[in-house]
Amino acid sequence: MKISFVALLFFILVGCSEVKEENYLFRSIDPTVSNLDFTNELKETNNLSILYYLYFYNGGGVAIGDINNDGLQDIFFTGNQVPNKLFLNKGNMEFEDITENAGVAGSSDWNTGVTLADVNGDGNLDIYVCAVVGIHGLKGKNELFINNGDLTFSEEGEKYGLDFKNYATTASFFDYDNDGDLDMYLLNHSVHTDNSYGPAAIRHKRTELSGDKLLRNEGGKFIDVSEEAGIFGGANGYGLGLATADFNNDGFTDLYISNDFHEDDYYYINNGDGTFTEQLKDKFSQVSRFSMGNDAVDINQDGFVDIITLDMLSEDEKVLKSSMSDDPIYTHDLKIERLNYHPQYARNMLQINRGGEYFQEVALYSGVSATDWSWSPLFADFDLDGKQDLFISTGISRRPNDHDYINYISSEEVERQFNASNRLDQEALNKMPSGKVKNYIFKGEENLQFSDQSGNWISDYPNLSTGAAWADLDNDGDLDLVTNNLNEPATLYQNNLAGNSAYLKIKVDFIAPNTFGIGTKVITWHQGKMQMKQLFTSRGFQSSSEPLIHFGFGNIQQVDSMLVIWPDNTIEKKHNITVNQTLELNPSENRQKVDYQQVFSKAETWFQKVEALSGLDYKHQENRFIDFNHQRLIPYKVSDRGPAVVVKDLDGNGSDDIFLEEQNCSLQRFFFKLAMDLWRNKSMQLPKILFVKMCRQ
Description:
Blueprint: H1 5-16, E1 26-28, H2 31-34, E2 62-65, E3 74-77, E4 85-91, E5 94-97, H3 99-102, E6 111-117, E7 126-131, E8 143-147, E9 153-155, H4 157-160, E10 168-174, E11 183-188, E12 213-218, E13 221-224, H5 226-229, E14 239-245, E15 254-259, E16 266-270, E17 276-278, H6 280-283, E18 287-288, E19 294-297, E20 306-309, H7 317-322, H8 329-337, E21 344-345, E22 349-354, E23 358-361, H9 363-366, E24 374-380, E25 389-394, H10 403-409, H11 412-417, H12 422-431, E26 440-444, E27 450-452, E28 465-471, E29 480-485, E30 491-495, E31 502-508, E32 521-526, E33 529-534, E34 549-554, E35 558-565, E36 570-578, E37 581-585, E38 592-593, H13 596-599, E39 645-648, E40 657-660, H14 667-680, H15 688-695
Helix pairs in contact: 14-15
């Protein structure tokens, strides 16, 4: 078949064409127009770089909320080596830097995560900023800026018991004991030391600098109750992601913690008595290896909150082959069998909550497993079609997992001279390639599928985005995005959704001191479809989003009904709610106690597990054979596909018999042997063609 030159030119031009920015769903607004002029500028020094501090490139956070209650959402950025900045929203996507007058620039050398919350219950959002203290001379403390109600803040971390000097990543405020006030979970990260390597039991030995902390609010003073509540605090806790949600729908807030490196993630179920039980191994089949930011939302509209965790798997084949990712099989097995860790793989994990009983991992199926060096995932309905979309911030200045760099730095000569020459330091840095990549955004589709809209919804220009948050900054009903970038101005993505898609914004006004109703659940029904949202603001990576419950409904005109479950586990119902409005929810006086089993009914299972059968005490013992030692290019092991099993009435007595594989022979050999035995048995008349097919395998 011949193709004309004109046709060929047409295909080339179409293939090379790009979506113009004015046609993107999100348009990035230039800082000279928005006045959002914050840059998290990072400079490597002889004493502080990725060579000395492994989280040097993790960047800063961003928090969004209305600090002066004027109906416009304001923005706060944290800086690692630069002062924090607070921007007041003036409307029309224009902002004013009020940092100096507000007094929130901060006094720490290295700031990380930030959270907006009404800590003292006066109806105004306060600012809690985390810091890394004690690494290579870094000074400072976590700071709590209490809102004075006049666009100024007072730093009162010590007064509230929150002025920690740790390796802090981020924090979340929520009411874990259901007593009406906000408690706090402080997520800390570890650094590589002899104490951070070893068996998983390290997590039980508490350390002050790197161990996570649970703080109970007792009359405005936060008390460390970590140990008595069952919260791990070991030197192997490399905490990078923190999600709060009622995962099993029992009325108490649970926790999911993303841990980097060899430590497992933590899945804490709230027991309702002030304690938590960690249940990761019981509820999850596998987790991300280098778990980073996370987010939790109900994706499949069944009323149970699902989870995504991010990792560093790249789509780019060159990056994939030149970077360290999964452990060698020997190390992988050693961690599980000897050191008591859970299976971990270096890719994003999308964990679907199956009725609060267990989680099913589907990232490969859903198309969201590989987004390179990823930081902050944010689920939201950006196109207002009733399905959850997904934004992921990405990029790292230099890739420390590059094989060339690892080979260089691992040589004995370089190791001997490493601390003696600044030139060697720079040479080592130069061995690390750039990790600038595009931010990703996915459109939620049917059946847990996502389609990559990077380059269609947002620019696919490579960047270094870390912290990210969403909010309706221009009050037009759709959600905008803000990212905190390394060595580049922060990005303000304005959502320019056009059409008749309907939204519903819900602003919660609850009983003081939990004035913003953190923990509120809202369930809507429209045209037989259910959506459920829980109000928690700390999400993604080192960031917090607007304290808002937001729904998209496509082209419908009203919501049929709505259930509101308040933080005190009372419930009320509303009907025929008009869309395209901001609905202010206040608790009524005639609320009833919620029956969670009635509201969140679980689907009946088809099968029921039988714990024991008389006479069937067989237990398969797998051998230590490793396929990769013999077939280097095999994609996965096939020697552990067994044991084989056959159920059939072999003696003709009307009852099925069970044959189980006794040796570690392959499945094909087992069935071939069984087929030949049956063929020799003249009383068993089976089709000859069946055995011919088996023999040819």
